[in-house]
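Page 47, continued from p. 46.
Same chain as before, 298 aa.
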Amino acid sequence: MHFPTLEETIGHTPLVRLKRITAGRNNTLLAKLEGHNPAGSVKDRPALSMLQEAERRGSIAPGDTLIEATSGNTGIALAMAAAIKGYQMVLIMPESASDERKQAMAAYGAELIGVSKEGGMEAARDLAETMIARGQGKPLDQFANPDNPLAHYRGTGPELWEQTGGTITHFVSSMGTTGTIMGVSRYLKERDPEVQIIGLQPEDGASIAGIRRWPEAYLPRIFEPDRVDRVLDIGQQEAEVHMRRLAREEGILAGVSSGGALAGALRVAEEVENAVIAFIVCDRGDRYLSTGLFAPES
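Result:
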């Protein structure tokens, strides 16, 4: 009898049809529940992929120190994967990350280094590069590492195709490192070039964990614009309202970027008919409770 190890439980997440939040026009809205991964987010997939592939190449070995800049979910996932495989994980992040995220990383044994909220992820990435150049650890670099989208080409994309029986017409995803949308787009377009890939970025002034509008100098190197058919700007309030709708109308407790993904999917649904629209619910909402985002509205 085969008993799976923890890493073997990553992926194969549920795809569920929304029942109360309807898209009209005979459209079907499907939510891919990535919070069901063992460390609670879609980032479990690339975290394991980056470690496994680096080990296969011989560029890292158990006992090494690894360094990564993260805004949260990737850090938690990498801390888990490092614990499974025997690495010391150093995570650099903006101090604005929620307490739950920081505590989860520390619980897995990672060392945390904070940068200012004002410096943000750009400052975290700069510090990671400086520490690596000093020989303080080895890089994974989710922003430039092809093993990030590879996880979604091998896992998330095929799952969406199989779970919809090949009927998916639109895929909606927040864009941060862009690994999810790059890998899924590559797979789905190989299956059906007509599948529409919709990426989400925050509108100017919005601060939505997991969704980024990068300055040109910091654009992830894994990002290929031609793989995205359309990009929608998502507002702060819009994302938060739809995050609460997911919880209160569908029983799906998720983070703000997932609310943004629902908002984007509903926008698409207003324009099409008889479509099968899948969007990524990238994590669980329990890691945002201390932020007050789910507090009753006064």
